[in-house]
Design goal:
Elements (H helix, E strand, L loop, with lengths): L2 H12 L11 H11 L4 H14 L3 H5 L3 H8 L5 H17 L8 H4 L7 H12 L8 H11 L8 H14 L5 H14 L18 H4 L16 E9 L5 E6 L10 E2 L2 E4 L5 H5 L2 H7 L5 E4 L3 E4 L3 E10 L10 E5 L10 H11 L2
Parallel strand pairs: 1-7
Antiparallel strand pairs: 1-4, 2-3, 2-8, 5-7, 6-7
Length: 348
């Protein structure tokens, strides 16, 4: 049997029962693919069900507001993906009459859909012969064929895509792609791969040459930016001051608290001496409580987040600030670190 035959046979006996594998509906497949990008299946499944229940088709999704989508997306991170999904749904509604396209050439033109996602949807929904290359597939190809080129270099991307194209079973590309991805997720794992039960270990370069832990190779290009966020809680028994974020930074258009960003983590007296503090809250500033610093890690940023509760007093609302009832917090799209803090403070 061929490599593809071995993997497909293994897949049919060992695959996980996942809801998007029982359909050829391009909309449902798109939903699953975007939600599961850089997200574990276990974490993504509840979100998939929630989105599908609230938006059973692309037309209902397209009719949603950005706030609705971001609220449902809350906790997944990479919020630009949620915003791009809404743009995609509205494009499909406007240009394709609410029928999600299945052809790669149409899919690749949609917002937030790249080569990987277009290949996945077209092969799963319409059996179009497009090879899918995600993180799992990169790992399988690198180990099996002994490819040392970094997976995130321009040359490496071409080499791996070419290898995937050659390996693709043109007669059943959908199940071949599913098998490759599932094999990488379940057996050819990043750490502690199950080489002892691997159906293709006999022909695997990495297994034969004790190089399993050396492949794939990846260039470390990510520069981590450290930022220091000082959030201020101004609240009475029923209400609090909230801020709507702009659209140029992380958590675009979501909701948080009044914020002062500093270059370093300041001591309390340093905070009180900040000119911005008086500019925002006036002269009558008294701190009730300073909470421990929380380290919040994003893909390219490391945030040090500190919450400061101020004694409640009348303040002048700045642009983008508003007063809301505590009961409305559950309706707002909040970054995870903000949501957890407010949930604990107010027992939401």
């Amino acid at each position: 049997m061929s490599f593809s035959d071995d993997l497909v046979q293994w897949y049919q006996s060992n695959k996980r029962q996942l809801p998007w594998r029982d359909t050829h509906d391009a909309y449902v497949i798109w939903l699953s693919e975007i939600i599961l990008q850089q997200t574990r299946v276990e974490q993504g499944l509840p979100y998939f069900y929630s989105f599908l229940e609230k938006y059973p088709d692309v037309s209902s999704f397209a009719a949603a507001s950005e706030d609705d989508i971001l609220k449902l997306w809350q906790g997944l991170g990479y919020y630009s993906r949620g915003r791009n999904m809404l743009k995609t749904a509205r494009m499909v509604q406007a240009d394709y009459g609410g029928i999600f396209p299945e052809a790669y050439d149409q899919l690749i033109k949609l917002k937030g859909i790249g080569e990987y996602t277009a290949s996945a949807i077209s092969s799963f929904a319409a059996n179009e012969p497009k090879a899918v290359v995600d993180g799992n597939v990169y790992r399988v190809l690198a180990r099996y064929f002994g490819i040392n080129e970094p997976i995130n270099s321009p040359k490496g991307i071409k080499i791996f895509q070419s290898a995937a194209n050659e390996l693709l079973d043109k007669h059943r590309p959908g199940i071949h792609n599913q098998a490759m991805m599932e094999f990488g997720a379940m057996l050819c794992r990043p750490k502690n791969p199950a080489c002892n039960i691997c159906p293709v270990s006999e022909g695997c370069y990495a297994f034969a040459n004790n190089a399993v832990n050396l492949l794939p190779v990846k260039l470390n290009k990510i520069k981590i930016r450290e930022r220091y966020f000082n959030y201020f809680l101004v609240a009475d028994e029923h209400t609090l001051v909230m801020n709507r974020r702009g659209d140029k930074d992380i958590w675009a258009n979501m909701y948080d608290l009044p914020l002062i960003e500093t270059d370093t983590l300041l001591p309390p007296d340093g905070l009180l001496a900040l000119p911005q503090l008086k500019a925002l809250f006036g002269d009558d500033i008294k701190i009730d409580e300073i909470f421990p610093v929380i380290k919040h890690v994003l893909t390219h940023q490391r945030l040090f987040v500190r919450f400061i509760k101020l004694q409640h007093h009348h303040i002048e609302l700045k642009e983008q600030w508003f007063i809301t009832d505590r009961n409305n917090l559950k309706k707002l799209a909040l970054p995870k670190v903000i949501f957890i803090f407010l949930k604990n403070i107010f027992n939401l």
